[in-house]
Amino acid sequence: MKTKKLFNSWIMWVVLGVLAVVLFLPMVFGNSSAKVDTSVGLQQLTSGNVTEAKMFDSDQRVDLKLRDSLKIDGVDKGNSVSFYYSTARAQQVANAITKAEPGKFTDQPVQSNWLLSMLGVIIPFLLIAAIFWFILARSQGGGSKVMQFGKSKAKLITKDMPQVTFKDVAGADEAVEELHEIKEFLQEPAKFQAVGAKIPKGVLLYGPPGTGKTLLAKAVAGEAQVPFYSISGSDFVEMFVGVGASRVRDLFEQAKNNSPAIIFVDEIDAVGRHRGAGIGGGNDEREQTLNQLLVEMDGFDATTNVILIAATNRPDVLDPALLRPGRFDRQIPVEAPDLKGREDILKVHVKGKPMDATVDLNAVAKKTPGYTGADLANVLNEAALLTARSNANLIDDRALDEAIDRVMAGPQKRTRLMDEHERKVTAYHEGGHALVAAAMNQTAPVTKITILPRGRALGYTMVVPESDKYSVTRNELLDQMAYAMGGRVAEEIVFHDPSTGASNDIEKATSTARKMVTEYGMSEKVGAVRLAGSAAEQQMGGAQREFSDEMAHLVDQEVRELIEQAHNDAYQALMTNRHVLDRLALALLERETLNQKEIAEIFSDLQKREVRDVWLSNEGRPVHSDGPVLSPKERAASSTD
Ligand SMILES: Nc1ncnc2c1ncn2[C@@H]1O[C@H](COP(=O)(O)OP(=O)(O)OP(=O)(O)O)[C@@H](O)[C@H]1O
Ligand SMILES: [Zn+2]
């Protein structure tokens, strides 16, 4: 489609151009005397009317100057005429001229005309070459890149010694903490090598645009005082076939020669997309580039001292090969900042901008939910511009408010800004999860709650066990289900109108319940029977169902029963602690993100759910009252006190 259009327009014009040039050349360079037949020319020569003759061997042409003007069929041809001759007659023409003995005779052999004839050859050739050049440029995406081709090496890979430090990055404390180690390694590789410590080869920073990923990577280089080589993934893709891969090689070569160093690849998703997943099949160039990148990463050894940092907004589309151990095995989320983070970022960017004493940056942060670091930097810059334009010296609230509105058009499109009611529903939903988790007896502590949207989730609650766990008990599973239902139940209790936001939670709870019944043997009615071909397995495209319809019915009933129980647990927990839930929701609306300590404070007077009765797999198997023995460790501990 596209090429056809190209042909229609460009090729047509160029061909027309060539034709015009070819037709015009003889007119411009050639003579304008009247053309006559060869026989007429010869006859003039023999008649002795010729005073001057010029013979152009290259054109096989003779120009004649005549004493008397020539008349043919009554038409006056004037005093100068020219005629062409065929090769066969060249000798005859030459003889005729010599015989005629014109007063002046010049003979122009072939080479005398070489410039003209060369031009005639070269110009069309150049035009054709230009057409190819042009088509190639088009198909490689972006004509301008072609022009840069020769000097692209210097332009695409940039070497830098950044002066930025971690202090310049605000509101991304978790990411900074993770990167500290990288910085230390780059600064003192020997220390790490001496103890055989393995440092990650690649660090992947992922998060929405403008959250400071590039800034963080630069800060690592700035802190460690090492060179920073950067290139953008999208630059690779626009290159000629084979160039991307060789550019990657160059890049690593340069960095290794200047190690310790950091290589930063922005927009790595442009090259690192799942192989063969591009539109219209694979993109060879991209795959080659990606393969080269993997080869280079695998070639790193303990003494390379080069760390690759990559950034992307789309970690989900990356080729799994990139995320394998030994490659980008360190993945650091860089999220949009919360209220506190926004205030800190404003504080960083306010430097060098004189503020009116009445300006409260915390208030500005409150007015900018969902804004990224780049947006906030932009707000302050806009405010400074507005202030300068109005000839004022200090940036005041009025300028800031207007700047916020101006920048709003940006973030509103990218990160959705929730309306107040939706934020409230989210606050209660997440609050519900957290509160139920805290009220149950077998759940891990709630470490973080946020109502900042991330990906498709409107918010999330993090419940992290203090140590790794390899198995889960029945009570823990029941608690997890209750906690999963907590969000939905809070909406139900507070708004009497649950939202669709809970579909994920319901899915999770249902799948847990189903596994309890069909895989873990945790239902009395079904018993400790493994039901092969359960829903989960069928989903995986595997096993057929191997049990009766009655059993299937029973399973469904038991699952329903477990969910109902979880729903109840959550309901009770939230009803008894409604005042705590309100307090939590308010804190979330105010601060957006709460950490473990803040959460614990809010939950100080939380009423826990009572412990469940002992579960009997069958009434006929009564409770045995003896507990387990004390472990040696426990015994040692109890004997000391
Ligand atoms: N956490 C932050 N602290 C201070 N300034 C920030 C922060 N995040 C972003 N900025 C400002 O925004 C600018 C742009 O950020 P940066 O280019 O690092 O974002 P990015 O995440 O790499 O974006 P993209 O995904 O579009 O490449 C920075 O130069 C800086 O001025
Ligand atoms: Zn939820």
Structure explained in plain terms:
With 641 residues, the protein is an alpha/beta fold. The chain has 26 helices and 14 strands. It has a six-stranded mixed beta sheet with strand order 6-8-9-10-7-11, with helices on both faces. β3 and β4 form a beta hairpin. The termini are far apart. The N terminus is likely disordered. The site of adenosine-5'-triphosphate has 19 residues, from α9, α15 and α17.
The helix count comes to: 26
Q: Would you give the CATH topology of the largest domain?
A: Methane Monooxygenase Hydroxylase, Chain G, domain 1
Estimated structural class: alpha/beta
Mean pLDDT score:
81
Instruction: Provide the CATH architecture of the largest domain.
Output: Up-down Bundle
What is the 3D shape? elongated
Structural domain count: 4
Give a count of the beta strands, DSSP E runs of length 2 or more: 14
Sheet with the most strands, sense and barrel status: 6 strands, mixed
Transmembrane segments: 114-137
Subcellular location: Cell membrane; Membrane
Protein name: ATP-dependent zinc metalloprotease FtsH
Domain AAA+ ATPase: 199-338
